[in-house]
Design brief:
Length: about 150
Amino acid sequence: MATEAASPARPGDAAEIQATTDAMVRLLIGTPLRSDGQLTIKSLAAEAGLKRNKLTHKLIGLKDLFYALVQLQDSRPKSVDGLKRHNDELKKKLSDLRDEHNQLLTDVKQLVRVIHVLEVENQQLRQSAGRDGVVRVLPVPRLPAR
């Protein structure tokens, strides 16, 4: 019906008009097949399988109609809301995992330093034991009295 009203000059135009109107319907009811489901010209072009410049330069009337219908709808499709909510949850989870990863890296560096100090102390104990096998206590530095 839209193709008849538009009276296309070339046969290929009718297919583009039909694809665009079908894509508009799918986006507006929230059941996209080929796009992210957002109500933008970019998504409409992807949904229709056309290049965006076809909508912005050739099918201007359909572009304007789409914008008018989007303004009347005044909301995003439910599928986009669900995807946005899921995306926000994944972003929060990613942020939490990055924080945990950074904390683990800090812990690993600290443990490496502790192991190094223990190895040095162990080596000093072995050297101080000498051949008799007696382990001597290392002197503990005393803090000055206050």
